[in-house]
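## retry 2 of 3
previous attempt timed out at serialization; input unchanged, resubmitting
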Amino acid sequence: MTERPATERDLLRWAEALAAVAQTGLGFTESLYEQERFEEILAIAADIRQHTHGGLQPEVQVDEWLDRVGAGVAGYVTPKVTVGAVVGNDAGELLLVQRADSGFWLYPTGWADVGYSPSEVVVKEVKEETGIECEVIRPIAILDGQRRGFTRIPLISIVFLCEMTGGDLKPHPLECSDVGFFGPDNLPEPTASRDLWAEHAFAAINGEDVEILFDLPRRTPWRGGDT
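## retry succeeded, writing output
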């Protein structure tokens, strides 16, 4: 099998994975020798990450990673988790919000908050961001953000199909510039990564029995040949 050259996405994923191993090691080790080795791994990871778009100078990146090291279980590095909602109306249109920080349109989504189950976060986020009340039906996607290419940080996105139950459209005054329902042929611009989720989302809100979309295991996770 001919393997493709490593891409910028590969470099970013490798750098973040190495950094996570080193940060977790620093959070658990009591050995000065191991601490030095883990810090050396961080330096190597920072050199790799510098060659990606927006990469920091290695010394700055290492300091940023070290600032996030915690002791013990609190220091075990895991991906961030976001929870999103695919909400349709009677016309088969999809609820989208325009993010105030980026200007991109996307389905309502937010960080998984402590003290809430993923489905509880969904209901809360939809109400806060759009003014719409909804009921969670089931999950329809569990995605690796870095592998899919829609985030630069290690992130897992859980997306739920939801049913609108009430409320009125009202964008969050700080987080959202606009909010609305849109059909598949009139998605607003710019819509974030629509090729990754739009077809699946519209199939779900139109009652199709869609499977849960997820990333299959790679045969060789750390080679450039498998995406």
